[in-house]
Amino acid sequence: MNLYQKMCAVVVVAGMTVFALFNTAVYAQTPSSSQPNTVANQTYIELVRNVFAFALQNYVDEVDAEKLYKGALEGLMNAFDDPHTQYMDTSSQRNISDTTAGQFGGVGLTISKAAVSTPENPAYVIVSNPVEGSPGWRAGIVAQDKLIAINGTPTPDITMDEVLSMLRGKVGTTVEVTVRRGKDDKAIEFTVTLERALIEVPTVKFGMIDDGGDTGYLKIIEFTPLTPDRVQDALDYFESQHYRQLIIDLRDNPGGLITSVEAVADKFIDEGVVVSTKGRYPQDTTSYTASRKNTTMRKGIPIVVLINGGSASASEILSGALKDHKLAYLVGTRTYGKGSVQQPIPLPFNDGIKLTIARYYSPSDSNIDKVGIPPDLECTFKPMTEEEAEAYIALLNDDVVNTYVEDHPDMTEGHIAEYAETLSQTYKMDVRDLRRIIRLAVYKYKGDALYDLDYDVQLITALETVRSEQYGELLAASRTLKELEIEREQMQDQEQDAE
What we know:
Elements: H1 3-25, H2 37-58, H3 65-78, E1 86-88, H4 90-101, E2 103-106, E3 109-113, E4 125-130, H5 135-138, E5 146-150, E6 153-154, H6 160-167, E7 174-181, E8 188-195, E9 197-200, E10 204-208, E11 215-220, H7 227-240, E12 245-249, H8 258-266, E13 272-279, E14 286-290, E15 303-307, H9 314-324, E16 329-332, E17 340-346, E18 352-361, E19 377-378, H10 386-398, H11 400-407, H12 413-424, H13 431-446, H14 457-466, H15 471-477, H16 481-498
Parallel strand pairs: 11-12, 12-15, 15-16, 16-19
Antiparallel strand pairs: 1-18, 2-9, 3-4, 4-5, 5-6, 5-7, 7-8, 10-11, 13-14, 13-18, 17-18
């Protein structure tokens, strides 16, 4: 027997061994249509276990079991063909945990970090904004500072997930950060020790719109356990300011906890269904009904809700509930269309899975999954022309705005307007767009503004609508989600008949 024949014999024997292993352990119980589901399910579970063990032991190179584990769970979750049922690595699991808890132990710095680090451009941690009152803020760390080391470890050498793990921790413990401020030869470096404190996940921003009117503005960022209390803080503040209209901004709100949005909706709705869920098992089929004793929103206040394609899940529950109960008029663009409920399940290695367990229905019994909620009044931002898009790309590549703002960090609105006019001579864009670009760069140093009445045409339209004398008529003529669903189905039937 030559070498080739010997190798073939080894392969055949190995193949027979594998077949015997799987045949004995699993295929002897090959599922059939006559078997109970529990038997078939157990058979597949056993098969997956055996394949995992065999591949781990026999692959040509030694492989990390954790890598196979993560790949197996990702594949398992992807098999549901549901974008909201997914495996969550450590970073994703941390984000879910933060939302669920609404707070965490940390230093209060909003940060970013480039994914790739090179000698020419080290991937330092960049401070976007310090949370007011936080340990980082009290230590004097400001926007655009670079964290070049944490506890002596250079930040270009570690991942963002490792950065977060080092900055966060038990309240009262400390972490040392080395800060670089400024650029080139003018940069200064200093090291500060920060004592971790309880940091609240940003959930609500609010204030009166300062244009001589009496309209309250409530921006809900996401729904955490703390959102109902923060919304109540906003409503109390608006009352103290004698507001007469309210704008609730749910744009780009990805959702959050269903219990949180139920409690928020209950502040506006005095009776009736807020939302219902329907799942596979009785415990996943529920209906949440508003109670008059929980209603804190004064009746008769016109409300406009701002929505867009980034409004999903819990934000769709709130906008849909207010719409179905004829309490708010919707302005903006169609929402994302996530009409399902997920349960996050933590796993032993600081990871987890997120599993869809039910679908939710609006008060008029409509599910908007993959459909979304259309606005009562559509309003979009003006798209750039081809010439403007080319000018915008050139502006970004030239990086003149960031450079200018770095040298003039205390720019006022007047300065912004003047610089925009100057830029428009070279970059042929809408001057309002240029002002917005400059303003965003200025925000890095001064912190974000609550709203932008110069650029935000959707907010401007919402203001005009909520203050309109025809608001009552517009609201009365708006249709519930169920009415819109029936209308959509009728149109689809007509189109099919026409074919």
